[in-house]
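FAQ

Q: What does a record look like?
A: Structure on top, sequence underneath. For example:
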């Protein structure tokens, strides 16, 4: 079994732990980190301390995996995840691709290291998902989509066929992006939005159809 540490102790981290546990016999979850050093254990998985403990854990073995357990609701969360992942790489942690057995991943799909796919998500033929992304519960990624690194596809999103999502973008819960649309890197698309055309500049977009608000 692969030893893995979850970095973060909030709601998203609990979802990550729960998804790791569903991959029976693959992972030995050593624990999670939290700002609160003595956070309560979750399902018997202990809090190891705050992120400062990672340096010590990294010295224990060359083969430890680490997975980000911090969710994304705003751009600052993405920046935080990018910085943390850099730190994990520098410490020598390896990344895991973690897919819930309750997700459907079709043929000819590539999913990058450090990405997690939650229950009920569907990723269809020919799609690729970059490193350290989150494909959240019940999201549908139709055929031939290109999803960048550090992207969050929030719960219940529908990406129609051949959609491109640039690095470090977040598509908010329940949104729909129609076929062949490209969304630039660094975009926040608000919950419940409809994207009918390309978004060429980073920014925050909301509504149906979307308009730029920031
Ligand atoms: C888009 C988003 C990031 C904007 O957050 P923000 O920068 O804090 O923006 P504010 O809340 O200040 O809202 C700014 C304006 O946009 C509107 N707005 C914000 N989000 C909106 C949305 N999803 N749909 C429509 N309008 C929205 C607000 O009503 C407000 O309008 P006003 O200026 O007329 O009052 C956020 O609202 C959002 O939708 N986040 C995604 C949440 C999500 O999917 N979470 C999944 C977690 S797993």
């Amino acid at each position: 079994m692969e030893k893995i540490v979850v970095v973060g102790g909030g709601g998203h981290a609990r979802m990550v732990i729960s998804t790791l546990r569903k991959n029976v016999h693959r992972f030995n979850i050593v624990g999670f980190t939290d700002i609160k050093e003595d956070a309560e254990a979750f399902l018997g998985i202990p809090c190891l301390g705050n992120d400062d403990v990672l340096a010590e854990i990294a010295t224990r073995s060359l083969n430890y995996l680490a997975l980000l357990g911090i969710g994304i609701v705003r751009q600052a969360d993405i920046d935080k995840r990018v910085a943390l992942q850099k730190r994990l790489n520098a410490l020598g942690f390896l990344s895991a691709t973690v897919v819930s057995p309750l997700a459907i991943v079709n043929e000819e799909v590539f999913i990058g290291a450090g990405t997690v796919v939650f229950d009920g998500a569907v990723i269809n033929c020919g799609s690729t998902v970059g490193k350290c992304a989150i494909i959240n519960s019940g999201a549908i990624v139709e055929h031939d989509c290109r999803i960048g690194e550090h992207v969050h596809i929030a719960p219940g999103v529908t990406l129609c066929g051949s959609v491109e999502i640039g690095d470090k973008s977040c598509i908010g819960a329940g949104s729909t992006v129609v076929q062949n649309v490209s969304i630039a890197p660094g975009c926040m698309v608000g919950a419940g939005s409809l994207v009918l055309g390309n978004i060429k500049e980073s920014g925050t977009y909301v509504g149906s159809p979307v308009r730029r608000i920031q």
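Q: Is there anything notable about this one?
A: The domain at 2-91 is CATH 3.40.50.20 (Rossmann fold).
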